[in-house]
Design goal:
- The chain has 120 residues and is mainly α.
- The chain has one domain: Butyryl-CoA Dehydrogenase, subunit A, domain 3.
- The radius of gyration is 17 Å and the shape is elongated.
């Protein structure tokens, strides 16, 4: 018997794990589309700074959310030192920090949205 989604989130007896997997699949798919877009622009030798920032941010956020959700689903087993989920959670957090923090990516994206050219 699975954990059901609370009524406030649509409830109706749907299995929480299925719900969580669907949400994470959408996040992952969105991130992969962004990566593909940035790669296409790079191949066309056009400016990719904003598209690359969006792709990196989307991928970092998706990875962190997926790892966080796995920790929630597995409860204390997910937090056990040395477990795969614990390592994924640490690694996902690291992707938000190295090679340009997520906050830096947000600044690049916001600059583009506001018409402020800071990067190529």
């Amino acid at each position: 018997m699975g954990v059901t989604v609370p009524q406030a989130w649509g409830g109706g007896g749907r299995d929480y794990l299925s719900y969580a997997l669907a949400v994470e699949a959408v996040s992952r798919g969105s991130a992969m589309l962004g990566i593909g877009q940035a790669a296409s622009l790079k191949a066309a030798q056009t400016s990719i700074a904003t598209d690359a920032a969006q792709a990196k941010l989307a991928a970092s956020v998706a990875a962190h959310q997926a790892a966080d959700k796995a920790m929630q689903v597995l409860a204390s087993a997910g937090y056990r030192r040395g477990s795969k989920v614990e390592r994924y959670f640490r690694d996902a957090r690291a992707t938000e920090i190295y090679q340009g923090t997520s906050e830096t990516q947000r600044m690049v994206i916001a600059g583009r949205v506001l018409g402020i050219r800071r990067h190529g």
